[in-house]
């Protein structure tokens, strides 16, 4: 175990004591839950470290629990910088919001238990053979490489295409990483494969469950089919029928729910309890994020001189993985997100410093209607340059251009990053630009053009 003691500013000692005596309701609720759960490790409250006070901390695992609430707004960026310094010293953070602690303690407990098990369990081999042979991972970069090695037998190395006409149109050198040619038609195959391959044999026998509007549902179903694992798929009732049909084809068992994030999570949690299945999050899980990073890793291997990579932003799993890949494999390469104006929660989150949600989900880019999570948001804050918002008409125009000029099929969500380039041509003029076309699962009977 790590069990490393990190020094702190002595001036914080008395302040930490005062915070323990004047805990917020949320802190009290979470502390009671931690004490009652018998997690097998000991946490301490209000622990001073460097120039920061961590809400809860386990010295054995070097695991910090942070509660982000409304009172944090004015100092969020300052807190984040101090937390990054602790991360550089090996501290791992798991973050919950005031709302989650007060209203969804079951989900909070499951996330915390999973994180503790993850930190106490030796890493498996890169091939995912579950021999429990410990693999020493010296850095996150090495973990990304191992994730790539792990999933290679189960994915396509997708092609990178370009169009001279499009290059002239935007006065830039653009290459498209075509994840629309990936197995099941989207990049989600990468994250889903890595997540399932990272499970133990016993966990696989109990099956997996996820909630998804389409692409991750298909990815989990196909990955599970390839590995002989039962897949329970929670889908909103208004998900495209073409995606529901694909899930059934891959052997996934569909459980429909209302089209809200709350309904998705509640239904998935119920199945997890009843079946003992492992929950796979479409975008807010480390193994999924690391798997997603492999698309950008492959792109940078072929084009190591890129100035910027653009990706669509929905739940944040792809842009977080892409940002990690760019940071560790080509640090000079910027990462920019494209997001529909109608669901611009990621854009607003970077401004406010906290995870925002959407009141409306009225966008043609159905795969981007979800919001960021506590695992991917810190990565996005740290490594993503900016997010460009685009209108619905701009998304449709970009999608149509790809279809007409490159003769390839992409879905609306996939067109958002290209729409951002078309909207801000001057920003990308004379630059080498990579765009990840995230998927091609579109209902051809219901095209917007």
Automatic annotation (TrEMBL):
Required cofactor(s): pyridoxal 5'-phosphate
InterPro entries named in the record: DUF559 (IPR007569), Endonuclease_DUF559_bact (IPR047216), Restrct_endonuc-II-like (IPR011335), TrpB-like_PALP (IPR001926), TrpB-like_PALP_sf (IPR036052)
CDD domains: Endonuclease_DUF559, Thr-dehyd
Domain Tryptophan synthase beta chain-like PALP: from-to ranges: 152-439
Gene Ontology biological process terms, A to Z: D-serine biosynthetic process
Domain DUF559, residue spans: 11-110
Keyword field: Lyase, Pyridoxal phosphate
Domain of life: Bacteria
Signal peptide (from-to): none
GO molecular function (one): ATP binding
Gene3D superfamilies hit by this protein: 3.40.50.1100, VSR Endonuclease
PANTHER family according to UniProt: SERINE / THREONINE RACEMASE FAMILY MEMBER (PTHR43050), SERINE RACEMASE (PTHR43050:SF1)
Similarity comment: family membership: Belongs to the serine/threonine dehydratase family.
Record's protein name: Threonine dehydratase
Lineage: Bacteria, Pseudomonadati, Bacteroidota, Flavobacteriia, Flavobacteriales
């Amino acid at each position: 175990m790590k069990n490393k003691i990190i020094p702190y500013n002595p001036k914080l000692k008395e302040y930490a004591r005062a915070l323990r005596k004047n805990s917020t309701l949320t802190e009290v609720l979470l502390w009671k839950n931690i004490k009652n759960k018998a997690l097998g490790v000991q946490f301490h409250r209000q622990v001073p470290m460097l120039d920061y006070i961590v809400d809860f901390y386990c010295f054995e695992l070097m695991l910090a629990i942070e509660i982000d609430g409304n009172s944090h707004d004015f100092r969020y960026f300052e807190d984040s910088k101090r937390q990054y310094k602790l991360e550089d010293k090996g501290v791992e953070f798991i973050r919950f919001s005031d709302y989650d602690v007060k209203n969804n303690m079951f989900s909070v407990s499951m996330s915390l238990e999973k994180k503790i098990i993850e930190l106490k369990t030796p890493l498996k081999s890169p091939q995912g053979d579950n021999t429990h042979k410990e693999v020493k991972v010296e850095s996150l970069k090495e973990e990304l490489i191992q994730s790539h090695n792990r999933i290679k037998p189960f994915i396509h190395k997708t092609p990178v295409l370009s169009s001279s006409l499009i290059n002239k149109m935007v006065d830039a050198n653009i290459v498209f990483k075509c994840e629309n040619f990936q197995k099941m038609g989207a990049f989600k195959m990468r994250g889903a494969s890595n997540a399932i391959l990272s499970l133990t044999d016993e966990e696989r026998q109990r099956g997996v469950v996820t909630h998804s509007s389409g692409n991750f549902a298909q990815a989990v179903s196909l990955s599970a089919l390839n590995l002989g694992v039962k897949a329970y798929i929670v889908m909103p009732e208004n998900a495209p029928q073409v995606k529901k049909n694909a899930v059934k084809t891959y052997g996934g068992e569909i459980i429909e729910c209302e089209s809200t994030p709350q309904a998705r999570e509640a239904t998935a949690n119920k199945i997890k309890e009843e079946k003992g299945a492992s929950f796979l999050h479409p975008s807010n899980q480390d193994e999924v994020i690391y798997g997603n990073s492999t698309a950008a890793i492959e792109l940078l291997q072929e084009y190591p001189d890129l100035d910027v990579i653009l990706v669509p932003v929905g739940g944040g799993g792809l842009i977080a993985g892409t940002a990690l890949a760019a940071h560790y494999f080509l640090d000079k390469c910027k990462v920019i997100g494209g997001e529909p104006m109608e669901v611009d929660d990621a854009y607003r989150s970077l401004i406010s410093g906290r995870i925002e949600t959407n009141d409306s989900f009225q966008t043609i880019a159905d795969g981007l209607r979800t919001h960021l999570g506590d695992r991917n948001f810190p990565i996005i804050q740290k490594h993503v340059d900016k997010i460009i918002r685009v209108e619905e008409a701009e998304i449709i125009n970009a999608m149509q251009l790809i279809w007409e000029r490159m003769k390839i099929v992409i879905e609306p969500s996939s067109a958002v990053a290209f729409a951002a380039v078309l909207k801000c041509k001057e920003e990308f003029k004379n630059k080498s630009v990579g765009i990840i076309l995230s998927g091609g699962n579109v209902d051809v009977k219901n095209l917007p053009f």
